[in-house]
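Researcher: Quick sanity check before group meeting.
Model: Go ahead. Protein one:
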Amino acid sequence: MGCWVTRLVGVPRSSAGSASTGKDGKLAQTYRRFAEVDAAKISPLYEHIALALSESDEALSAIEAVPARKRSPALVLAALHHLALTGQAPTLATAYEAVSASPAPTDPDATANVDLATDAAIQTLVEMTEAVIALVAHRKVRTNPAGNHAVLYPAIAEVARRIGAGTVGLIDVGCSAGFNLNVDRAAINYGNEQTLGDPSSPVQVSASVMGDRAIPVHAIPEVVARIGIDLEPIDTRDADEARWLRACVPPDQPERIARLEGELELAESVPPFLMQGDKVDLLPDALARVPADALPVVTTTWALSDLPLESRLRFLQRLDAAATNRPVAWVSVEGVGVAPAIPTFGDRPASGHSIIGLAVFDHSTLYAEAAGRCWLRGQMLAWLADS
């Protein structure tokens, strides 16, 4: 969608600005680029606000007071949303609520609400700069907090079927808030009359299937363990942590907000066991927590790309070492060539899609297969494996 460009009223602007904060400075360019490139894809509201921030000397001066590594537009906007959600910025909260309840963006009322929200965002930033600084100091943006259920569900079910597992223990590496660990409890609609999971779930997921091959319809066996590993896991039972996840979703995205609320509801009803530390080092302890009569299924969704090859190979070795007395399965959704031992269909790295991998470690044997491709963080997938 295009951005709405209107003159802001009620927010004073100075004519002066430093080289870094002025309207032609690097900071202004950063916010303008965010508006035109990043926000334009996800949030008309943030597109409008970010552009207005780039044109306000007062706002840019306030942002420059934030530590340099914490000035990213997404983080500052999340901090403002957090202030609204916590009641510290009631005017902004009211404006955001009006936007979220607005009709189509082309409606005059919607445009007026966006203008008011933009004014309120700038005013809040200028008047509550210290509060913004305090928030961003120990926070980072959670850009995609929802689970990757549409791509994980059929892969987990398929690998469990092949082994004949009656129960499974899920271990999500790079788990963030652990939402992937409730994959069996989500409702998934693939748009081709295929559905998986629990239709009554508070988490309703839609995805598109590419190609002629259908998604396998097998169900995930009973899940007897839900374990997450992350350097900075998010315990959503902590109200402030849950609120920050909400703050990272733009207020004009009702579908994403509803999805997050559903994920939080599932996580609250069956909290995962979260382990904080190195992804590779903690893997043996996590595998040991899965009951002996259950199949451990380790999942990685775009969790290995930040590791050097040596660490990824060590990850593979840890899985192999754990498969001495029972099979261990690994479901990977990673960029082309990122997951070691997983075939790539001959695709080139950085091809714009990811490979869905299935691997089974059993004593000294490794079976690895590329089961399909996916795009847009699993919103589109092509299943290519025999089932």
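Researcher: Fine. The other one?
Model: Protein two, sequence then structure:
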Amino acid sequence: MEERARPRVVLGVGGGIAAYKACELLRRFVESGHEVRAVPTDSALHFVGEATWSALSGRPATTEVWEHVEDVPHVRIGQTADLVVVAPATADLLAKAAHGLADDLLTNTLLTARCPVVFAPAMHTEMWEHPATRENVATLRRRGAVVIEPAVGRLTGVDTGKGRLPEPGEIYELCRRVLARGPEAAEPDLAGRHVVVSAGGTREPLDPVRYLGNRSSGKQGYALARTAAARGARVTLVAANSVLPDPAGVDVVHAGTAVQLREAVLKAAADADAVVMAAAVADFRPAVYAEGKIKKEGDREPEPVALTRNPDILAELAGTRARPGQLVVGFAAETHNVLANGRAKLARKGCDLLVVNEVGERKTFGSAENEAVILAADGGETPVPYGPKEALADTLWDLVVRRIPKG
């Protein structure tokens, strides 16, 4: 890869214990071909030394505006960047960025950057929930920065709560989506919006051992959630039986059965601008749940399994609309007469958009790629060629953004 063609990433590192995780984030950027400049704060160097940042990036890591002044680093680093990501972003750093303070190289870089900027906060729960921090975050988001939600988990000491830095691999994936959108990402078009995405496949228990399920891995729904977060949305992901890692900056609610998924989706949808039902929800469940494992009895054939209908979550969402202007998107997995069945389902369910794709044992389910046609209630038809599921996600969010009422 030619030097000039390599995306230029500035990795700002704040002074928090999570600074050690930024080493892994830096390594991922470098190994994927990005040109990375690490800009730690003085406080960050108390946790991870300058030699580590320089060795991992292959470039000098400095904190002072007074070093190499002939290159005007306090201006040039931000001017030439394709992406600035700050991880961890401490409460202090968020406050300085929101108020335009520039007392070191990183805060100067944030003022001169005209590229997309991503903040990955990490701090104790009380600090994250403090009104001052919330106002600073709102200010940064209003100006176009992507401030991802921290994860919930173990903090320093014995404390647990919201404020943990998301896993480096997931921060990297979000940043990769931001970079893929190019200059458009400098103005996140889903900022200020709450979107709900369902993903995975429901499982309907037959007995304590067995269940009725499907082949859905959740990859498309997770791609939708990750892409929406990269475009600035507040995202709630209702995940059914997926083993995928939680996307950075996304609130994840886990569900097992169709009834549980319905409850979680309806609750999250109460204030949502858009709901995307990408999960493979079982149409039926066993009418009777066996309290003990169903055993073979000699040569006798097993009793037939009676089924009962599950709630139609998509039709319910489209029919009730929790708030005016709420957009509802469905998915249709078809094995034959794909478009004809898709159009019939779109009319029957009453949703605004329907993603129709052909599925099978070696198609779509479990794959990193997808191919689909997005049908619109107004008659529109948008084909999405075979490619990464993130590409389909971006196309779908483009259509959603055009249809969400302004304001």
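Researcher: One line on it for the slide.
Model: The first helix runs from residue 19 to 31.
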